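Bench notes, afternoon.
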Amino acid sequence: LVFFVHRCSQPFSPFWFTVEPQDTLAIRGNSALLNCSAHSDTATPARIEWKKDGTFMSLVSDERRHILPDGSLFLTHVVHSKHNKPDEGTYQCVATIENLGSISSRTARLSVAGMPRFSSQPAAATAHLGDSQVMSCEVNSDLVPFTRWEKDRQPLELNTRLVQLPNGALVVSNASEADAGLFRCLVENVGASKSSDEAQLQIVPETGEERKLEFLLQPVSVTKAVGATVLLPCVVTGYPAPHVRWMMGDKLLEESEGRVEILGGGILQISNLTEEDAGIYTCTADSGNASIEAQAQVTVQVPPQFVKRPANIYAHESMDIIFECEVTGIPAPTVKWVKNGDAVIPSDYFKIIKEHNLQVLGLVKSDEGFYQCLAENDAGNIQSSAQLIILDHVSSPGTREETAARPREKGPGEEADPTPSYPRDVVASLVSTRFIKLTWRPPAEPHGDELTYSVFYSQEGTSRERVVNTSRPGEMQVTIQNLMPDTKYRFRVVAHNSNGQGESSAALKVATQAEVQVPGPAPNLQAVSNTPTSVALSWDKPLTGNGEILTYKLYYTDKSMGNEQVGYGQSYTMTGLKKNTVYSFRVVANNKHGSGVSTEDVVVRTLSDVPSAPPQNLTLEVQNSKSIMVRWQPPPLNAQNGEIINYKIRYRKGSRRSEAAEMTAGTQLSKLIDGLERGTEYSFRVSAITVNGTGPATEWTTAETFESDLDESRVPDMPSSLHVRPLVNSIVVSWTPPENQDIVVRGYTIGYGIGSPHAQTIKVDYKQRYYTIENLDPSSHYVITLKAFNNVGEGIPVYESAITRPQSDPIDPDVDLYELFHAPYTPVPDPSPMMPPVGVQASVLSHDTIKVTWADNSLPKNQKITDNRYYTVRWKTNIPANTKVKMANTTSLSHMVTGLKPNTLYEFSVMVTKGRRTSTWSMTAQGTTFETIPSSSPKDVTVVSKENKPRTIIVNWQPPSEANGKITGYIIYYSTDVNAEVHDWVIEPVVGNRLTHQIQELTLDTTYYFKIQARNSKGMGPMSEAVHFRTPKCKLDQGFGTCSLLPESFQRAETTMFPKPFNENHLLVIVIISVGAFTIIVVVVGAFLCTRRTSSHQKKKRAASKSSNGSHKYKGNSKDLKPPDLWIHHERLELKPMDKSPEPNPVMTETPIPRTSQDITPADSALDKLLSAFVFYLISISCFSYTMPITCHVTVQSPTIAAPALQVNPNH
């Protein structure tokens, strides 16, 4: 009820960007506009400010740049020169509502087009008839979109034979005499146009002599965003004229529906790029006598997209909250969090968990505001915001001492409903290194039966509290987890009844234990597999036991689950394991102090066995009257019990008992069985084989060969029908196959054009019954032709015409929008057509497995399959059509798709086949595989020294190549001993969006070794190889306390870095001087004591005045003062908080050491000054034996003495 009231009285404030700035290419001297506008329901409009390169812009007196009323940034004229580029950079707008918060937009890059410069120009060239030639024209990369070509001073019209490449060059292929002339390229629309030199292209007849094949242009590796178009040139000259073909990996590329085209005889163009298009492309030119080839890699990037956006949150103080944020993209986006426009720095209370989620622990009122998740990769950046509102409690309980003296509040005319008094006898019943168990007794005045309790706790020295609630009413104990070892905490307990929260108990201060009493790792851990289901383990007693070993815990995992086993000896046999499975084992010794240090993991694979299950999804595809294609899938992974080395196919005719057999390799999942009889039924079964033997076989499955084969001695007949549906910029074409289905149809050719059907041609698969012709002109008359073809040739065409709609014509309301994007199923002229499966669902099971299920409406209600039909499942990793797909057959209404990529979105569809009849593809279903731990380590680890700070190093690295999910963090291990156990290395955690980290306060002139480990939401990946780095030698600069590099003389003689020992003469001098000085000072002190009382009142006033002035100076100038080297402070000193550093620091710490001399209460008498002088005197003579300048650090436990730093130079 309280929560509901607060929600109603304090609603969330809608606040977002309606327009965000976009990357812009500006022209020098012209105006430029960066759009930005924010929406809010508050009475006060949002104030828009702009940042450039991360810094707020001051636009008050700027006549050239100003903010428009809607928040957009307008530049009246762009300034740009070689040495002055004030407008080029990264821009971001920030919207602020007073007393509410701020949000930041996405970032946008403003680039300024440079002056046109030709790095290469067209040169005179000669081409043979029918051959190819390249005319160069390379300009600034940002000006390529403004480049065009002219021939004989007339604009050149480009086509599939004349192609302009992304670098500006012109490719002329299949040259004809009409191509001869003067060529030049021009750069326009960027101020004054500029043209290149003119070059003559001559066309000469082919002599018939053989010319060697050579590349005029080879493909180069390219990176493009998803949805873009890529051109890979492969221009070859030679005679006989070469044939160019392209391959992606080991697959031959074929032109498909205008998305993949080969232009100009060899230029590969891929439109509407998808993730599946990424890979290695090879172009091969073959003239019959010789061949050459070249390769290039295409990298496809995907801009960040939100899978889950952060949501608004209501919370109370001391609660823990999590803002969720899931993003996808290629490369994996980096995510950072911003609160009210300022970056959130990870700390003990602000943590990045589970990929990119932000966890805030122990909320305080100042945590209110707008939080934004900003995701960025090389392809773009996005942002999403959420608001946090901290609700006020109905009452704020104080401690027991405060509430005992405070009377109960009463309502108007009556006493308020009573809340519980404070819980009694709060004690820490169990204290460990990382957890504390608290127990207590109920309040003396509970005022109710069903009491619940909240435990508030905080680390000593911080004001931020966290809260843990009991799990059920009446429970009076709580275990606080995830504490830091050897750390002091403050606990208090509050009871709740039906009236609300009661009084707080007195604070209980408890310190966790230090982690020093537990055993070390057990050495010599060994694991041996004796049978397919058991592993024998043995180990030795830990070398550092720290007491009697009580038990050993054995932890083991097979990557899918983890378990533990408790033992008391130094060996154990683990039984009931999975066959041929990799297990990892580790042992932890326990003594009376708790669990010790774990051993390193030992990995062992259990022995293999024969498969325990048959192959899956056996299907039979009748190819013709004499052959049947047999397809299957391997047995389930957990039933293979080893590597499958072969498959055995047994088959028989009819009901005969005699069988024939065929063998395939373990990686082959299909086999064509030929030489069969016409119109005969055959039965097949398949079994899998490992080195241990043959597993069980599948059930017998039957199929009947055709009585007769389809005819391919002649071309197909005319398609039986052709229908067109014109839209504004496209025409939907649908058809039915030829009525005579005894003739083989390999596919269909669609021709279309304005007034003539021969302008453009498209070829589609024989199963296809529809096609959408796109990129057409509105209000234009198109003629369309359709022909079926096979290996003999093309059949008789059928013609149709259509006029596209006007540009202003709305979509016909009678047209089903679904049919526009998913063309209708057109039945073939068959008495009983196959209908596609329905209700397709994709259930994600693991990081590499998705189960696909569906229903078949042509089956009985019980969905039982009684005939020889089979289903084909196809899947791909993106939504756009016509991408590379994978397929598998099955005879059931479900299929397990394995071997998928982790954390990847897949799309599935299903079709059914029965004999010669097939259905169209079903509606699609989608599923995203789960993540799994990284399978490779971070790469390119480097270590460098920070400039002017030889004790600080910077570690840099790159993410693992096989992250298998979003990297949420890294752990840096470093040690001076490369062979040390892992648990002895120092660790530094780093958030997942960082690829660099500083490590400070290292020892000088020491070799350190560094390793890095990446983690995602599923766990830790492998460590990188150790990288070593040696810190430099250095000395202390006089008067500054900073470190600088030593001259070479000191590096050659390292012993001079250390103080020399005392000799006898030095010791004698020190004793004599000390005794004499002490006698004199005692006399002076005794005389001074007589006068001390008479002026004590005035001295106290002066001391108070001094203290006040000193404190004021510290507050105003502390940032400019460096801490002195010598601190002598007293026990009553009150520590003051440090000023917030202006430099960003991911780890904020508190220290009891004052930062300036003004932090310490000054001495308030001359006697104190004399005592200080005596102390400094003793320190100075104790340093005389050193041969170098040094700094002495001393703490004197005196209630009155404070002193500045002292540096002693024996040369002085």
